[in-house]
Amino acid sequence: MKLIERKDYLQALTDCMNTPDIKVITGIRRSGKSMLMDYFAKKIIEMDPESNIIHVNFNLTEYESLLEYHKLEQYIEDRYLDGKNNYVMVDEVQMCEGFEKAINSLHEKLRYDIYVTGSNAFLQSSDLATLFVGRTFEIQIYPFSFSEYLEYFPSENIYSALTEYLRVGGMSGSYVYRNPAQRSVYLNNDVLNALIVRDIESKQKIRNTTLLSNLIDYLMDNIGNLTSIRSIADTLESRHMKADHKTVGKYIDYLCRSYLFCKVKRYDIRGKKYLSSEEKYYLTDHAFRYARLGTRYMDFGRILENAVAIELLRRKYEVYVGILYKKEIDFVAVRENRKTYIQVANDISDSSTFDRETAPLLKISDGYPKILIARTYQPETDYQGIRIIDAADWLLNPQNA
Questions:
Q1: pTM
Q2: How far apart are CA 148 and CA 161, in angstroms?
Q3: In 225-258, which positions are buried (b, 16+ CB within 10 angstroms) versus exposed (e)?
Q4: 202-216 pLDDT, tens digit each
């Protein structure tokens, strides 16, 4: 399997070296957290050849004897070297019973720079403050971006490469399978069912596994649609499933906290306020949709919208669905109090489609940038103050938004 350096994430880890925080690498299963840790260990050696790295990877059987927090702490303490920078790295930390006690104790001693990765269900953003007494710094990683995909599969034609990326997705573990059916089996069985759903069911002690499965199907089928928990519950009940809105709400929360889905709330552009009645849900990687629902759901428009949503999150934007005079703007991207309004469409060659996509943007008068991202296969143009940018170009250039 080909390996690439994930430069942005490596830089984020490098920037927080030797800070007093516990650095926690989070993200969906099989998104490359452990591989990133390996690369970071090599980076530390390059920058600080005299450093002492204590690396425990619970994916390996050689560390089975440390699956209890006293033993883990003692193993690390025994390898501490005075007079050197001591780095502690623990992969799949949740496999150690009582791991938070060992990590908190080591952190309290002020002798180690600590980095951990863990299961998506057992080491979630919302759990960090209660798990770790000291301050934590979270670095969330996503599956491969289009830019990273091109680094893995170099191509002189970025437009055809984007077509493939929209089919294949960013879960790099699937790239070794050349047969699309085998990729789907890997994504659906080895990642989605075996690792994500199983983790959720285990941690949350879910009994109604049929409801959870059908809920995943529903959310995947409705990527990019505004919906509410109550309407989802009503739809599932109409299909003869026991699905009260409280249970559905809890299950959706579990799916989002395990990094399978991302929730995007609404923003009233005219009233400048956030709305909570309806939301959109996007997959952390769009390839899961094809793997689970099949190729009959090859909706490139929705998949492109999903890819843009995740790219905005990858670029550290707050992302909302814009509402203006009952018209919808796909995304209001906010960073450092600066807004960017974004519409996404697969094909705008038809004049009626072009007018439909630009009309909501033209009604916005606050002066913030407005962008229409589509598969134009052309250099950027301007239409009445709206930047029209080809999707491949936008995905490859972070400065575009």
A1: 0.92
A2: 12
A3: ebbebeebbebbeeeebebebebbeebbebbbbb
A4: 778 888 889 999 999
